Amino acid sequence: MRSLQYFPSVSISFRTQKDVNTPLLPRLSPTKTRNYPLPLRVATSTDEIPPNAVRRKTDINWRGGFSLGVDLGLSKTGIALSKGYTFRPLTVLKSRGQKLETKLLEIAEEEEVDEFIIGLPRSSDGKETAQSNKVRSVAGRLAVQAAERGWRVYVLDEHGTSSEASDRMIVMGLGKGERQSREDAYAAVILLERYFSTQGLGAEIILPKSLDLQEKIKNSAPKDPDFLPGKLEEYYKF
Fold first, then answer.
1. Using CA atoms, how far apart are residues 120 and 72, in angstroms rounded to an integer?
2. Which of 54, 104, 215, 216 could form a disulfide with 200 if both were Cys (CB 3.0 to 4.6 A apart)?
3. What strands, in cross-sheet order, belong to the sheet with 204-205?
4. Contacts of 42 (CB under 8 A, 6+ apart)
5. pTM value surpassing 0.70
6. Band (82; pLDDT cuts 50, 70, 90)
């Protein structure tokens, strides 16, 4: 997508020409200057609004910002949580539409999450599928509601996460019934692990069209009040 370019503030001067005689018109006053504020600029990439995985890579003192992994299925949605460098399956939701989006926001609020990592279906050759459009639609609606709270929404290639989750649960010794009921949540765990292990490589931010909401996201840098850079020494006392 071509990024929009805006010009900086300019001063516009109004002058009359000395060699023009306009007796019927009032003479304009000497130079007047009007300053116009810079318009809000469209955010275009994760470079401007980096995900938590990138923040950890670029700032070793940065702490805070929990991530919610979301595996959107046809009938179920798996949820996983990342706090620090730990990952765990949370739950599997069966609600759809607005009820699902509301539930995701409630979970994010409860778990102090500031970003959603949503799995984006792709085929083995990397192309998006028909299901990808449905996921993007949900992500777009969620992004608007999340931005109102200063939270961010990203999509990330989820190819292979379900099969990897199934293999992991077999190794863990879970029975068939448990695997079927938990697979979506464990797929969300795999998604989060992939996201952090690659420092957010391939994550695509989903932005609301409102520039005011985009600005709110950019100005809502996550901070964990219980883990500030200036107090790191407190966490090494045992």
1. 8
2. 54
3. 86-93, 77-83, 66-72, 113-120, 152-157, 204-205
4. 3, 4, 211, 214
5. yes
6. very high
